[in-house]
Design brief:
Helix content is about 75%, strand content about 0%. It has about 150 residues and is mostly helical.
């Protein structure tokens, strides 16, 4: 009869495999945006966001048995990486958002929206567009992790 510890190991390994597969899929999907955006530097910010979100969920899943904890950690990781990448100067310890950080986020979202409306393809990857991409991919990473690993 298997022990709880032995049955948890294959499930944990499966969760890692799923996370790695999701990472590969997202990298390919995001790379396909190179026809829409100029340059390729923006890809690193989006990939860093995805790694932070998925990685934090995967590591949390590996160290705790509570299934709900990774789903709380992943959004916190998203907030932290967005703060680090886009408004570290307004944050505590570079990753803890302050009210000023949310003001920067609002400005970036407005700038990104205006850039998307106003530019032709291929668009310049302005900080606003990169912020919107990182936010969107981070939210998609959270949803993908919830669906693929937990459900």
């Amino acid at each position: 009869m298997p022990t709880p510890e032995s049955s948890a190991a294959p499930q944990n390994l499966d969760a890692w495999r799923i996370s790695i597969a999701l990472f590969a899929c997202f990298c390919v999907a995001v790379a396909s945006l190179h026809t829409v955006l100029q340059g390729f530097e923006w890809w690193f910010a989006v990939t860093t966001t995805f790694v932070a979100v998925m990685g934090s969920a995967a590591v949390t899943r590996a160290v705790t048995r509570r299934r709900w904890v990774p789903h709380l950690v992943a959004p916190l990781a998203l907030g932290g990486v967005l703060t680090l990448l886009f408004s570290g100067g307004t944050a505590l310890l570079l990753v803890v958002a302050t009210p000023d950080t949310f003001g920067v986020f609002g400005s970036l979202a407005q700038d990104g929206s205006a850039s998307i409306r106003g530019q032709s393809i291929p668009a310049e990857a302005s900080p606003g567009i990169v912020f919107v991409l990182c936010l969107g991919m981070g939210v998609l990473a959270i949803v993908a992790d919830l669906i693929a690993v937990s459900w």
